[in-house]
Amino acid sequence: MVVVSKNPVYSVLFLIMTFFAIAGHYVLLNAQFLAAVHVIVYAGAIMVLFLYVIMMMNFNKEAEPSKTVFSQIVATIAGGILLITLVGAIRVYDIEFAVSNNATSIGLISNLGKVLFSKFLLPFEISTLLFLAAMTGVVLLGKKNTHS
């Protein structure tokens, strides 16, 4: 329904429903943290931004330039090549799910925290410093120059 819907607002709402379905699959795969982050980041933040931008834009059929037949044919060929590439890439992979004894605790937050703060502590702290430097840079760039 995301692709078929004629109204872009309905299309975004169907995309939000799709994101919730993907989060449900994450829960079924015992990855609760990933499901929660997926809902918060995608359905919560990014889709609200998309919905806001779509509502602020003016979609008039009269204002939209018409597409030439050549551009429609080129778009159709490019879409077909993309579809063939994706189908070929999916057929190459042999997906097997290995079931181990502790497969029930793979996606839990406690295990993620243990790995994050033991094995990956240095990269985690470096990324924290990078985020701090980025926030400081944004504040300095956004600050008005008062000495002019």
Summarize the structure.
The protein is mainly α.
Key phrases:
about 150 residues; mainly alpha
3D architecture notes:
The chain has 5 helices and no strands. 69% of the residues lie in helices and 0% in strands. It has 2 domains: 8-107, NADH-ubiquinone/plastoquinone oxidoreductase chain 6, subunit NuoJ (Four Helix Bundle (Hemerythrin (Met), subunit A)); 109-148. Helix 1 packs antiparallel against helix 2 (32-56).
Write the layout of secondary structure elements.
Elements lengths: L7 H21 L3 H25 L12 H24 L16 H10 L2 H22 L6
- In CATH, the topology of the largest domain is named Four Helix Bundle (Hemerythrin (Met), subunit A)
The ordered string of helix (H) and strand (E) elements is: HHHHH
What's the pLDDT, averaged over the residues? 79
- State Rg: 23 Å
The percentage of residues in β strands lies in: under 5%
Quick one: CATH superfamily of the largest domain? NADH-ubiquinone/plastoquinone oxidoreductase chain 6, subunit NuoJ
Euclidean distance between termini CA atoms? 54 Å
Number of strands: 0
Number of helices: 5
Structural class: mainly alpha
Indicate how many domains the architecture comprises.
2
